[in-house]
Amino acid sequence: MQVRQLAVPGSFEFTPQHHRDHRGVFVSPMEEPAFVEAVGHGFHVAQTNQSRSAKGVLRGVHFTTTPPGQAKYVHCVNGRALDVVVDLRVGSPTFGVWDTVELDTVSFRSVYLPVGVGHAFLALEDDTAISYLVSTGYRAGLEQAVDAFDPKLGLPWPKDTEFIVSERDTAALSLDEALEKGVLARYADCLPGPSAAAS
Q1: 57 and which of 67, 94, 111, 123 could share a cystine (Cβ 3.0–4.6 Å)?
Q2: Which is the catalytic residue, given 62, 73, 112, 187?
């Protein structure tokens, strides 16, 4: 497993070895020893989610109210996507910084996002399926979003794309509005503590 730390501290890209033969391919997108060595603690999976998207679908920037927050481990099981992580942790030295990873079924890269970090992706092909391992279960009242097109974030979406965006994401707060409303996590509340190994 190759590991790369992203520009958003605590976020990592994982690229596993994969094995191809006349039958197809076998790959392990998540390997606990490599994860623990890179991140410094384990990853408790409370729920698994999967989305399927047409080309041009943009989901995000999503995050979960902290506490409890939600960490994610994301990989692509079909198609291709531009995955974006955004530091939304108020007080973080890299607040507002983002990084990107291209997810596909050639490299089989995965992305880990710690609590408080925003997540978005753009489907670059039809029938793009993204799988998520998440550290907490879904609770609708805790799900939050920041505008993926906010110029203050300046996320690197391809300019020639016809975007397909949900009503929820179209109505998402700007970064400044999210700050004013106090919905973003405080950096101190997102740092791994004694319970990190259990969560």
Answers
A1: 123
A2: 62
